[in-house]
Amino acid sequence: MLKNNLKKKLIILALLIFPFLCLFFSLFLGRYPISASMILKVLANKIFSQKEKFSAIYETIIWEVRLPRALLGMLVGASLAVSGTAFQGLFRNPLISSGILGVSAGAGFGASLAIILFNNPLMIYSFAFLGGITAVLLSYLIGRIYNSTPTIMLILGGVIVASIFSALISFLKYMADPYEDLPSIVFWLMGSLATARFNDIIISAIPMLIGIIGLLLIKWRINILSMGDKEAQTLGLNINFNKGLVIFCATIATAGAVCVSGIIGWVGLVIPHIGRMLIGNDNKFLIPISLSLGGCFLVLVDNLARIVTGSEIPLGILTALLGGPFFVYLLKKTKGGGW
Amino acid sequence: MPLIKIEKASFSYGQQQIFADLNFVLGTGEIFCLFGPNGCGKTTLLENILGLLKLNQGSIFINNLNIANLKPAQLAKKMAYLPQFHNKTFPYKVKEIVLMGRAAYTPFFSAPSKEDKKKVDHVLKLIGIYHLRERPYLNLSGGESRLVMLARALVQEAQVIVMDEPTSHLDFRHELEILEIIVKLIKEKGLSIIMSTHFPNQAFYFENKGIKTTLGIMNNKKLLFQGSPEKVLTEKNMEEIFKIKTKILSYSEAENEKLKYLIPLKIIQEQKDEKK
Lengths: 339, 276
What we know:
The structure holds 2 protein chains of 2 kinds.
Chain A: H1 2-26, H2 36-47, H3 56-90, H4 103-117, H5 121-143, H6 151-175, H7 181-190, H8 198-217, H9 219-225, H10 229-234, H11 239-261, H12 267-279, H13 283-307, H14 315-334
Helix pairs in contact in A: 1-3, 1-13, 3-8, 3-11, 3-12, 3-13, 4-5, 4-6, 4-7, 4-11, 5-6, 5-11, 8-11, 9-13, 12-13, 12-14, 13-14
Chain B: E1 4-13, E2 16-26, E3 30-35, H1 42-49, E4 57-62, E5 65-66, H2 72-78, E6 79-82, H3 94-99, H4 114-126, H5 142-154, E7 160-164, H6 172-189, E8 192-197, H7 200-208, E9 212-219, E10 222-227, H8 229-232, H9 235-242, E11 244-251, E12 259-267
Parallel strand pairs in B: 3-8, 3-9, 6-7, 7-8
Antiparallel strand pairs in B: 1-2, 1-4, 4-5, 9-10, 11-12
């Protein structure tokens, strides 16, 4: 009992510190050879605002390539994981991930369209974001065909919308210029953080942060929503408002993530489960834990993607290849944590 | 002044009328047992009382306030719900489940306080399941789960608890345990209970314990009979509504105590006009 509490506190502490270690660690990894001592010097120089001069290329690599990319990875992983957790609770189904209401498919369609029409990063982000939001709105409207929004109708709406957008993506791929646009679309859909610059982070961080903060604020209410609509209402919740708020936060966090990083599967499905095994199902703890786990996981995977081979491996591939076996290991070790 | 007053309540799902023109009142420290055949609309009526469904006509008052005008959080402080079925999803711990009963008292952007957790412990002790508090509720037995749900309803600190067949699927011991807790809640805490049940003897049980008990028999969209169990649970009424032969027995354990019991004997075959 006491031991349990201590263990829980240790896990929480570890997960508070771990993201910072991951960020710090990422600065040392990359294709361009910079010695560790040089990196520390550049960091110290910035922090203590000394006027010592280094080769500009080091500063650029650390401050404008590696740091933004690690920060973006952290945010994207955190957003996907936390919205996955929220959706699982809301829809009372542990098999659901952040893409359940069609946000990934919608964003993929938006991005593909923008690649064909403009091929400019800003337009790709905007179209992907709008596509994701549109898909969720459509799912929600389908779910509301009956006056209330029963859970099963929302999921059905998501499935319908996702398959329509998937078909549209296939259509765009079929129509796209096979030498220029098609590869861009395919790579975008596989997910990558390679384009990250500070400007990108700022644009996509706004929706991600709004979503994450929103979910952090209402995290305990997700427990109650997971009791089902009727019970949640008799416990004192305005169902449509609370549900809508969770869907809104989870959606804009996911859409913000997808629009810069492409479609990165797995994080939104499995990180919440790893969190459940570590800390239990109370969303008061599970939401922050997923945040930390998701962020760290994606930063570490992205580090691997950058250094393993000369050309970067798309993230979507690595998340599944690494996450799958790790998940099986955890399942075996914790015996599913009460599932 | 009655605690709950239901006036001319009518409800229909689309074209299908479930009940019409229902009236009843319930005072503090009383119990209302809703009795009737399967599918007669008991659960629908309870869901209307809980504000989960909206009446087509008529109104339901609690403390003279029309529930149609109350927000879910306001209503949850006055009325709690013990559902018949609860779909378990995630393996929450018992204490986490019960703590959810404090939702109506918890500010929007926060989680329950230490004070709330103390209330949870208090209720768990009150109904004798404190030892289960760290257990994942997925692994509990049917009887234990029902007690956990009852605990969650109790920490809502409502004056009324609406129970949908609180003893269905329970063994003898757990059934009695629930009944004894209900009696304790009414006598010691002054709560009022509205419950649906398939066991007429439960109404006798409460009456025998000296609680003001009203039994309403619902059938054909109406509350056909309403009154004390002694008046309503008669062999004649059972024959009329359930088409069964019954016998009401009396038994005394001590002096000036009379325990009543209804025994179902046999089905009355309906006269089918086959010979015509």
